Amino acid sequence: MIVCTACCICVICQIAGRHAPCQRGRLCAATWAVRVRCCPTCSVAAVAGAPNGSGFLGTGHGGEYVFAVALHSTAGDSRNLLTPGQHAQWPAGTGLTVVKESQIGPFLSTEEVAVGVRGVRITVNLTVAYAVTSTELNFLYPCMTMFALPFKQWIAATANGTQVTGVFASDDSFTLRQRVRWVAVYDGVRLGAVYQYPVGNAYNGSAPFQNEFWNRAYDHKLYFRTDTIPAKGHSFIFTYNISAFTAEPAEWIKAAKEQVAWPV
Question: Can you give the pTM of this predicted structure?
Fold first, then answer.
């Protein structure tokens, strides 16, 4: 079984009255993330005998039972997004947070996608509600983000601070495969984005995967994978941030590092 808790952020588009869901990593203009041309998602897990036949469970894959979805704004109001027909407008600069509570396989999940003027913060809190074995739950993707095709190159700081670079392909290959502090991508012209974990938390995933890019024909998907699942009753949290920048080609790495909270 693979469990996926993906993409609450389209709900923000819909509540703002822009009924345009994500399409291959591109978000509608109602969201901040359109500047980054990426689709931040939360978690996915692989489960033997998943009832939907795909081997995966989670948002976008089926097998998720949603209890509540709420939208909170820094203007002080909250909305139940399971109530149909809602529309709202907020002043420029208002921060919005979607909170979803659900069950995905053995996990009780609380996910937050917070959108503000400084970027997007994604947090997933998973509690193991039912005991599972490694043959039942094969692995978990707590963090995934899809970057649109215009991005052409990347740089990453590994867990010890060493910097590695690469160029995207579209051949279904897997690249990077490192523990990382942060990753930056650039379109080769002007637009870039920085993906980073909280300072001090270069999450240790499963070898040889760790953090890896899947170079697909229609986007570049960044995964963090772990095979270590805590015992029943235990909870664990993963958080990452995405921010945008603009820069000329000769200055893009410098501009990316200005977005990084880690020492560079």
Answer: 0.81
